[in-house]
Structure formats: C-alpha cells, structure tokens
Design goal:
heterodimer, A: 3 strands, flat, B: alpha/beta, 6-stranded mixed beta sheet, 4-stranded antiparallel beta sheet, 13 strands, 24% strand
C-alpha cells in the first residue's frame, strides 16, 4: 500500500495539471452556435452543465491533476487520469445533450478550446502513466484495442450524437465510410508498391556500395519536393499519358485522381524504406556473415536466413515512418481529386465549417497514432537479439 | 591430408601469400603463427576458398578443392572464427544445427548431434539449447562457435584466432578443451594465431609466416633448437627458449628408472613445471607418478637441465 501512496513532486504532471486547470478556468468548454457556420458563444463547464455533473467533472479532473503532480504510483496515475478523461468526454457529451434545444437540427454544440486542452492534457497523463508501466508489445496493442473498442461503442451508442462533429458525420455518414476506405487504400497501397521496389533497391545499395550514394541522393531529392508541388508536377505527364495511350486511360490513369496521388505517395515512401533496409543490413554483424559464408551458405541463403531476418526490425521501423507519414500526406491528395479524409478538411475550410474540418482531421490523427503503436509493437516483438 | 601447392594470393602488386607449399598430416594440430599482415589468415581462408588463390592448388585427400562449388566444399570443412560469429537471432541449438541443416540431415539425427555436442562442450542441453547467444558468457559463446563448426562431423577444422577475444584464464581453459576435443575426434585442425605461446601449447606442427611466406614449418622443438631464420628465433623469443623447450616434454616422458624422496610430481606436468617445483622445494630429484598413482621413475634437476640444452 505504501507504494501506492508514495508522494513526490512530478514536474511533467504539474505542467500538464496547470494546462488542465487553466483550461477549466479560462477557456470555453463548449461553443454554442445558432447554426453550423456562425461564430458561437463560449460556455464554461458550469454554464454548460447542470451543477451536479459539472462538479463531478471538475472533481474528476482535479483528482487526476493532483495524482499526476504528487503521486508516484503509475497505477494510481493511470486510474485517475483515465477517470478524468472519461469524465471530460462524458461532460462534453452531456453538454451537447443539455444545451441542444429539443428537436433542433440547426443549433450546433461544438467542443471548445477548453475541452480540447483538457483532452490533450489528460491523454498525455494517460500515455505517460502507461509508459511508466513499461507494458510489453502485446499489452500495448491490447490497450490500443481497448481504447478503440470504447471509442467505437460510445460512438455507435450515440453518446456524442448532439455534438457538432457528430452532426456533420450524420449528414456525411455514407461518404465518410467511402473516404475512410479510400484514405486507407491510398496510404497502404502506395506503401505496398513502394516495398516491392524499395526492398530490392535497399539490398542492391548494400551489396554494391558504389550505387548507394546515387540512389539515396536521388530519393532524398524527391523527399524535399513539397507534396503539393509533386502532385502538380505529376498532373501534366499523366494527363498526356492518358491522352496518348488509351489503355492507360482505361486503367484509370488520369492527370488528377488516384493515379498521381498513388505515384507521389509511392515516391515519398521509397527513401525511408531503402535507407532503413541499408541501415538494417549494415547493422548485421560482419562476423555472423563471415561465419555463414565459412559454413557453406550461398549468398541467397545468407541474405534470406541471416541478413534480412536480422535487418527486419530496422526495416519495419522504416515502414512505420512511411505509414504514419502517408496517412498524413493522403489528406493533401484530396486537393487533386484523389479523395480520402482530406476531402472533408478542404470542404470544411471552403465553407468555414470547422466541424467538418475536424471530421476529416480527427480520424487521420487516430489512424496515424494507431499505426505508430501497432508497428512499434511489431518492431519490438520481432527483435529477438535484444535482451 | 591437406596439401598446399605453391599457393599465392596477390592483391594488385601486394603479395599477401607468396608461393606457400606445405603438407598438413591428418589428425594433427597445425598452427600457423605470424604477426598481423603476415598473410596467415589469408592462407587459412584459401583452404576453404573464402579467398580464391591467385595461383597454386589445395588438395584435400588428393582432391583438388577447386573442382567443386565453394559452398559445397565449405560444408565439409569446419570453420570457427574470432568472436565466434554466432547468429544472434537463432538459439544455441539452431546455431549448432546450421551445417547439418544445409546438408539436409534427418531432424532426429540433427537433434541427437546437437545434444551430443552440447554435452561434449559442457553446456547442459536442457539449460542451454534454447538460449540465445547474447544470454551466454564469452567463453560459452566461443564453445558454441566451435561446436557449430564441428556439427557436421568434418574431417578438417579451420580456426582463425578462435581464442583471440577471450581473457587469459578462459583462454587457457579453451585451449585445454581443444586438446581434449582433438583427442576425442581426431579432427585435423589448422589454427591461425599471433600468439607463439598458444602455438607451442597446441601445435603438433607450427608454421611461422612473415610477409606472405612460410619461413619454417616444423615440430615445435625444432623451431627452438634449429630456427631456420632470425625472424623465427625472434618470434619464438630467445630469452626463455630453454624453458619453452622444457615445456614441450612431460615429466612422464623424461622420467628415468629410480626412486626419490619427497612429494611426487605428476607425470603429466611439463619439465618446465617439474623444474620450477624442484627449485622451489630446494630438492635435487622427485618421484614421478601417473594418474593412477603408479611410480613412473624419477627425475633430477640435472636430467631436466639436460633436456633444456639445444642439440
């Protein structure tokens, strides 16, 4: 029990606590808007909720802040931060329910800056506490699945249905599913194609050091081209190709749309995978390769059974970089008509409907975060050579 | 039998190995010793064609090694290197099973062989078979490296500074173990080292190399008493060569009929150790007994000193 109540001042916890308290006191918890486009009225927690639930939410946040600032036990920190997180989410949902006039389809209740700051502070407290518990790769994946399941269940249950973002979702539900699918297909498809090219290229760079400078240099150059510029650069040649070759047009290759997006993302994906493949192969102990040769393995056997398996954790680290990067970059591909969740972002910007922007942006953040957690866990579980 | 015929390796103008001819008798330990850059490792690596000779031939039991694909040749020749070169992502058992697997042995036979080798190398199979190399001590890693080299029962074992990364105490133990192993399997061992003491301890024959050439290839005692070259004399060290010579003969081999008082000396001790013991005790002679405690004769300081004189 003494481990649970051990007290020590924690600077990170105090800083996050300050943010949370400041958010509660100074920033609007929700914004009340007469319709989806007009600027709204800020409401603090006490104004947005009946007294009892408001006090309960404030209490839960205060306990989390105290635990994060003064207590050492990671279990205590995790438990209180989770409770705070749940309380804040339920509070914003309840504010949506209570502020929306009965039957109104026009009034929008948007989470305010106070809510977002609270959410971030508490989420950081949760991740900090989880990090201190040093969970293994499998545990981290299970935790991610648990969070995802809770989020899915509450969304399906309609807990947040009166919030502005969910209102936008309700209007766009069919398109949302389609754009989400398109987003994932662009991010994963371009990665898959890049792997087919980048892995052999990485092996080649490793085997023939003279090629390394040139290949990595060219890929580096591609990486420096801004995404929007690369989409633009690809438009003209692809349009010309589609015009000149009927087969290309029949395959769906055009100046705008999926084709240039896939090609650009493919090009961006090459460098991290090639560079990490080279790095991973270089990391393999020369003594192990020498011994393998001395025992009569062929070059192919050495590559397949010694070098690549030892390099895989580093290669997957490269794949992780690419996947997280692609999930973000696909958002921009909406500009050239490739679809994806970016469509909502640009539409929202065009209509000054910030809720629509969030409908596109929040799932992208969640996808990127999940991809990072999953692939980090994969890297760690594969590296058998570390104690 | 391994026959090297006029073997050379040139890199551009550099003659790393220059016209080496020598015959390595079966079931012996041959040590190739030299300073760094003498070409000793290159010479060793030409035997299993990790380095392809510029000219000359290697014959193993009369067959030219160039006649078959290099990787098939290497599967028949054991190879152990400094720093062991174990595969870090494979268990001890998987490491040892490498060559038998390349040769498509039956899984049962592989398993039995792995267990046998682990026992020979004093690594309890149930404890160590499923460990990863990073979970072993340096000495244990080195033993697994040698076990792996011997897994497919090769007639020839090549060792490139196998004990170079070990501390002196573990190294002495590893050298003892290698001699035991040699007695048990009779494998022809060719070992490269820069350590002359190691060469004297292990070698039935020693080849001294410098600048790509073998200066002398002979029994250890001959290197001391008849150095073919000033460099050989320098390598063997003239200051304590009489004592080195004494260390090549055991008390049992030198004992003469007779008896003496005082504590007996073991027949397996070298003359160097016996002399040291007698000087320490201040006695003139001692009884020599073998492992069973049977008297093998006696040995006097005078008789030991006679062994230490050249010719």
């Amino acid at each position: 029990m003494s481990a649970l109540t051990k007290v020590q001042f924690d600077r990170l916890g105090a800083l996050l606590g300050c943010f949370a308290v400041a958010a509660l006191i100074f920033l609007p918890f929700v914004i009340f808007k007469a319709n989806r486009i007009v600027p709204g009225d800020p409401r603090a927690v006490l104004e947005a909720l009946p007294l009892q639930p408001a006090l309960m939410a404030i209490g839960a946040v205060s306990i989390a802040v105290l635990a994060a600032t003064f207590f050492v036990s990671p279990y205590l920190r995790l438990g209180t931060a989770l409770l705070g997180l749940i309380a804040v989410c339920l509070a914003v949902a309840a504010a949506g329910n209570s502020l929306t006039p009965a039957g109104s389809k026009v009034v929008r209740i948007a989470p305010g800056s106070g809510f977002w700051l609270l959410l971030c502070s508490l989420a950081l407290m949760v991740t900090d506490a989880i990090t201190r518990l040093r969970p293994g790769p499998l545990m981290r994946v299970l935790l991610l699945l648990a969070f995802a399941a809770v989020a899915m269940v509450s969304l399906a249950h309609g807990t947040f249905d009166h919030l502005s973002i969910m209102r936008e979702y309700a209007v766009n539900a069919v398109r949302f599913a389609h754009e989400l699918g398109q987003h994932l297909w662009l991010a994963v498809g371009s990665l898959g194609a890049a792997l087919l090219v980048a892995l052999p290229l990485g092996v080649l760079c490793h085997r023939i050091p003279r090629l390394r400078g040139g290949i990595l240099g060219s890929l580096n150059l591609i990486q420096t081209i801004p995404a929007i510029a690369l989409f633009g650069i690809l438009m003209a040649p692809l349009a010309a190709l589609a015009a000149a070759v009927p087969l290309a047009a029949a395959l769906g290759i055009r100046g705008i749309g999926t084709a240039p997006a896939l090609i650009a993302l493919f090009l961006y994906s090459l460098l991290p995978v090639v560079a990490n493949t080279v790095l991973g192969l270089q990391r393999v102990s020369p003594a192990a390769v020498e011994a393998a040769r001395g025992m009569g393995m062929t070059r192919g056997q050495i590559l397949a059974t010694i070098e690549l398996p030892l390099a895989v954790p580093v290669i997957v680290t490269g794949i992780r970089i690419v996947l997280v990067q692609n999930i973000g970059l696909v958002a921009i591909a909406a500009l050239i008509g490739a679809g994806g969740l970016g469509t909502f972002i640009f539409q929202g910007i065009g209509q000054t409907a910030i809720d629509l922007v969030l409908l596109g942006a929040l799932p992208i953040v969640a996808l990127a975060f999940s991809a990072a957690v999953l692939l980090d866990a994969l890297v760690e579980s594969m590296d058998r050579t570390r104690p | 039998m391994i026959k090297l015929e006029n073997l050379s390796k040139h890199y551009g103008a550099a003659r790393v190995v220059d016209g080496v001819s020598m015959t390595i008798e079966p079931h012996t330990i041959t040590v190739i010793v030299g300073t760094s850059g003498s070409g000793k490792s290159t010479l060793l690596r030409m035997i299993n064609r990790l380095v392809e000779p510029t000219s000359g031939r290697v014959l193993i039991d009369g067959h030219d090694t160039a006649a078959e694909p290099a990787h098939l040749l290497r599967r028949r020749i054991g190879y152990a290197i400094q720093g062991h070169g174990l595969f870090p992502h494979r268990t001890v058992a998987e490491n040892i099973a490498t060559v038998p697997q390349l040769l498509h042995w039956e899984p049962k036979r592989i398993q039995a062989r792995v267990r046998e080798l682990l026992e020979v190398f004093q690594l309890e199979p149930d404890t160590y078979a499923h460990k990863f190399p990073h979970q072993l001590s340096g000495g244990q890693q080195q033993r697994v490296g040698v076990a792996r080299a011997l897994a497919a029962e090769p007639n020839v074992l090549l060792m490139d500074e196998p004990f170079g990364a070990l501390d002196p105490i573990i190294r002495a133990k590893a050298q003892e173990d290698l001699l035991d192993l040699h007695r048990r399997y009779g494998t022809t061992i060719v070992l490269v080292t820069h350590d002359m003491d190691e060469a004297f301890r292990l070698g039935n024959r020693i080849a001294v190399m410098s600048q790509g050439r073998v200066l002398q290839y002979d029994r250890p005692a001959m290197l001391l008493t008849r150095p073919a070259d000033p460099f050989v004399a320098r390598m063997t060290g003239s200051a304590d060569r009489a004592l080195k010579l004494l260390s090549l003969t055991t008390a049992g081999e030198a004992a003469v009929p007779g008896s003496a008082d005082g504590a007996p000396i073991s027949a397996s001790a070298s003359l160097r150790e016996a002399l040291s013991e007698l000087v320490w005790r201040g006695s003139e002679s001692a009884l020599i007994i073998d492992e069973q405690g049977k008297a093998r004769g006696c040995l006097s300081v005078e008789a030991i000193l006679a062994h230490g004189r050249s010719h």
